[in-house]
Every structure is written in C-alpha cells, then in structure tokens.
Amino acid sequence: MSKFVMPITTAVLLFPLIAALITAPFLIYKYRKVGSVPWLHAAAMYSFVFYLMCAYFLVLLPLPADRTAVVAYAQTPQLIPFQFVRSFLAETTARLDDPSTWLAAICDPYMYEAFFNVLLLVPLGAYLRYYFHRPWWQTFLIGFCVTLSFETTQLTGIWGIYEHPYRLFDVDDLMTNTLGCMVGFWLAGPVMRVLPDVRVAARQAAERGTTASATRRALTFGLDLALSQALAGCGYFAVHAVNGSRLLAGFGIEHATFWTCECAAIAAVFTLFPVITRGQTPAQKLLRLRIVRPDAAPASAGQVVCRYATLFAIVLLPAWAFGLVAGVDDIPTTPAELRTLASLCVHDKTALTLIWCAGVLAWAATLAVRAWRAWRGRAPFIMLNGLISDTRIMTEDGIKQIRERTHVLDVGKVAELEQRIAAGGTSLGALMERAGCAIADQMRSWVPDPAPILILTGSGNNGGDGWVCGRALAQAGWPVALACPRPPEQLSAEPARTAAFEAVTAAEAHGWPLSVLVAPTPEELSREFDRASGVVDAILGTGFSGMQVREPYATWMQLANRRRFHGKLTRKRIGGARHPQAGKRTPAHAKGAGKAKDAPFTIAADVPSGVSAQTGDAALPRIYADETVTMIVYKPGLLTRKAAPMTGAVRLAPLVDDVERYLDAMMQSGRVPRGRAREADLP
C-alpha cells in the first residue's frame, strides 16, 4: 500500500496548478468559439486532466534510483491471464466455505492490488460516458488503449529514459484496468440521472454566446486597452532611443513625449485597426465580436471613429488634455495665451478634476443601470457612445443569425416559395428529404449514442419530415419508434406518403431498427416516452391555427409534456379522473416549473406543434421543444418572445443554397414584402 501513497501525495501537491495550465488553452478556445464556457464544462475538463495526470504518475512512480538500475522482477513480462488468481489461491488459505478466512483474504496484497487496478480507470469510463458521450464499445477500446500505453511505458522504461524496465508488464493489469473502465461506464448511467446534462449546458452556453454580453465586451475593452498601453510604452522608449529630447524640442517638455505616444497608440488600436478590419479591434477579432449597425449591417469608418472618440472623450480625453496643457508652462517659446491657460489649469486643478470625476461617475452610474437592465432581460445593453454613433457590438454568430433573419416570410407565402423552388429544379420530395436529414443530423449531435428515439408524426407533409428523419436515424443505427395516426399507405399528403412508404420498405429490407406504431394507445406511447432519449415533434406544421388541438394529437402532446416536466419516475396514468382536461394549464405554466433531468431532448420540425407559425400564439396543449429546426426561411411567429418557451433554440435549415434568389424574385413580383425581424425579437 505504501507504494501508492507517494505518487498520490506528489499528485495532490503539484498537479492542481499544472492541470489548470493545461486546461486554460482549452477554455480559451471554447470561449473564442462559443462565447461562453459553462462552469460544468470547465470543472469537468479540469477534473479530467487532473485525474489523467494522477493516474499516469500513479503508474510511473516510484522511479528507480538511476537510469541503469535493474529491477529483477520487471525484466520478464507476465503474459499468463489470471495469474494473480492462481497466485492468490496458492499463497493464501482462503476458502469460500470458511467465512473466518475471508478477512485475511481481503487484506492479501494480491486482492487489494487487483482492486486498485480496477479502481484506477473507473473515473475514465465515467468521464467517457458522461462528458464525452462515448458508447460502450468506444469506451472499451479507449480504456484498453490507455491501459496498453501504461503497460508499454513501464515495459520500455518510459520509452527509453531508463535502460531497463522498472515496473512489470502484466497482462492481468491490462484486463483489470480495462474492466475498471467499463465499470465506470456502467456506474455513470445512474449517476447521470442526478447530475446536470452537459449537452444542455453546452446548448445554453451556445445561446449565450450569440449575444455580446457585458462581461465579454468588458474583457475585449480591457485587452485592447492593455495592448494600447504596451504600444505606448514601446513607442515612448523607441523615441528616447533615437534622442527624443531633440526630436520633440519644438513640442514641449519630457512628459509630452509620453502623452503623444499614448494618444497615437489609442488611435491605432481603437480607430485605425477597426477601420482596416471593418469594425474589429484586435481583442474583438480574437473573441469574435464586431462593431455593426443596429440591423447588423457593416458600420462605416466614420461610425467606428465616432464610437470610440465619444468614449475616450468622456473617460480619458479630459485627463490627457489637462496633462498636455498644464505642461506647456515650462516651454520658453509658449505663447502668452497658452501660458495663461496652463496657469489656469494648474491653479484650478482640484476643481477641474472634481468636475471631470463627477461627469465620469454619472456616466458610469447610467452604464451600470443599463447593464443591470440588460442582465434582467428588460432591455438590450447599449452604451451611450453606441447610441451617439448608431452602432452596436455583436458576436459573429449573432450577426449571422440576424442576417439570416433578414427575410421573415409570412406563412401564407411559404407554399408559393416552395413551388418556385420546385420549378427551379429542386422537387418537393427532395426538399422533404433534406429537411428530414437536417433534423436527424441535429438529433445525432445531441444524442450521440445510438439511444432510442421517438418520432411523433402527423398526417401531413410535416409528418413526412418525421418519416425521413426516422429512416435516416435508423439507417445510422439509432433505435427509432415512429408513432403515426394511420398506416403509411393511407396518408393523403404527397410527398409524405411516398416518404413513409420508402422508410418502411427500406427498414424491412435492410433490417434497420425502425418500429412503426400505428394509432398507439396512451399506455404504449407512454412506454416509448420512458425509453426515449430523444423526441422529434413532426405532428403539426405551419398550417396549424386555432386554440385547440384535436385527438389523438392532444393526448400525444400531453404525454410529451408530462414526460418533459415530471420525468419518468412520477409518470401518472392516463385515463379516469386523473386524466388532465384539455383546457388545464400545463406544468410549464406553474411557477418554478422546469425540465426533468431524465427528460428526452426534444426537436420540433419546422414549428412546435400547437404553436402558430404566423403569430406565435400557442394552443392547448402544445409541445415544448429544446430546439426547433425551421425550413428554408424563418416564420414570424418563431421570432416572437411569447413563442420562445415552446421553440427553444431556433435553427434554420435553408435546404437550398440560393434561397435569396427566390425571395428576391417574389419581392420583385410584388408577391412578398421585404421584411426584417424586429430588433426586440432578435436574440
């Protein structure tokens, strides 16, 4: 046991800082890519790096005294499987029929060494399943490869650093370590039910990353200011390196050199560089922010200059001007008027400083109020210089989303747009194929394991998207249960009927895991909800309107909401007095209601069922989705704030590359107005 104490102690004392240094680049990369790093990801990655370091050094330490040391027992690899079992039985008196020998057997070195070999990679298996979402076979392979690297490192004397092996290559260690990795994988399953879902945290971070938060903007400003000060210092020393006192003899005294370099560096970082890069300071370019107009259009050079000139005029310019003017009194050639002004500044230094500080504090107070209102979600965070220059700071992803939402097409015009696309060579069947595959790709990104997926389909073309999605998921190995109100051959909508027939035929021919539930009972559907790790809502599409959903879809949606908000364990039976009435408020309306930890990830096709794609009004019941994949163009109702609880994150699947061309053609023909999403409705 003592040989484990020293490595563990060394790891505990030295590795926290090293693990932080290794984790920092990953967190910086994630912050640059996403714009937000959830604490769960940071803690998981840090603990994972720390664990790997501890595990590896537990295998390597203690080291021999010198490079040429020969450890006798380590020179011949142990290649006989289960040799430790034979040694244990041969060297102990343990007997299964004699309980008095069990305690001594447990304390035997063979026993606790095998136990620690299993325990060593238990955390690795848990991390692979919980954080990295690896299936069991990948976990097995990774665990085996990691264990093999341990044993190979021991066999080669840390890859040649030592001339002889100093630790035994043991095939039993290879087996027990791999077993420990799989034990961790199995134990992670129940633990994941109580731990936060890292995928949900990632989605929330991605949503926060599309907005330029006050923290992110303050960080970029601080980095830019630090860069400008570094440039000013370099310029100051460079001037003195070429005899700056003579060079600046006509401008003033010594400190004028500093103020000149300071102003030049500020102008270079906050004016020249953004003008060249079309709205990005160096730090904004690093963290993927950009200065744009309120509609996400590129800001002009004059607007960029006005934005930062206003900022520095409020914060720093009075101090710089005071320093420059106050210093000219020492210049012999200074005109009398300027000398008088300098004397006034020096004489009234305290009063001028107080006035300036009062102005800055008042501006800072209004800034804090606007930041607080933005944090509370009551108003966007817009600084005074942004209002004066008519500019905003947005993320690259946020700009992309806003520009994608340039055209918000009325639901009544969507069918005409689809017909124009079909006339251009892309059939409605091809559009449905691309739509279903887009939903399937999005579901696989959130449910990476081949876990059960439940797809709810209607009788229209929105249901056809669900059939294509089910076929694509089943083809990739995901077990799919598809609920439909009637058999595929009885669907009236085309090309939905063709898509359903092709999905069933292909699944039967190739043996794909696709099961079709025709008009399932509430009990059957409830069991599928309990099994599902993901749900696709393809019941009602953009054609839905009204305040009441008909059966059987109303019951399906009630089951979906019950599974979402109550979870699997507290599921109530359907029927009798406990059956909720159609007009009863759903749990989502209750104060403090939230998604159950074991609820499946839900994706809505085009629009959540029960939500009007035109107005955003919601019927009873309605689907609450984690994400909505809308097709071709955005619909007005999806961008309203009242629809946000039902839509979740809204993703656009353009389906064709030249949607803009068809929209422009409709606009020129006067069939559709060119519209934009309102700024208040944008994320």
Description:
The protein has three domains: about 200 residues, no CATH class; about 190 residues, no CATH class; about 230 residues, 3-Layer(aba) Sandwich (Rossmann fold). Helices cover about 55% and strands about 5% of the residues. The chain is flat, with a radius of gyration of 33 Å. The chain has a seven-stranded parallel beta sheet with strand order 5-4-3-6-7-8-9, sandwiched between helices. A two-stranded antiparallel sheet has the order 1-2. The protein has 28 helices and nine strands. Strand 3, helix 23 and strand 4 form a beta-alpha-beta unit.
CATH homologous superfamily of the largest domain?
YjeF N-terminal domain
Shape field: flat
What is the CATH topology descriptor of the largest domain?
Answer: Rossmann fold
Task: Report low-confidence residues grouped into runs of 5 or more.
Answer: 247-253, 327-334, 570-593, 673-683
What's the number of extended β-strand segments?
9
Number of helices: 28
> How would you sum up the major sheet?
7 strands, parallel
Tally of separate domains: 3
Strand order of the largest sheet: 5-4-3-6-7-8-9
Radius of gyration: 33 Å
CATH class type of the largest domain: Alpha Beta
Overall helicity: 55-70%
Distance between the termini: 57 Å
Q: What class would the helix/strand composition place it in?
A: alpha/beta
Q: What portion of the residues fall into strands of 2 or more residues?
A: 5-15%
Comma- or semicolon-separated keywords:
3 domains, disordered C terminus, Rossmann fold, 28 helices, 683 residues, seven-stranded parallel sheet, alpha/beta, two-stranded antiparallel sheet
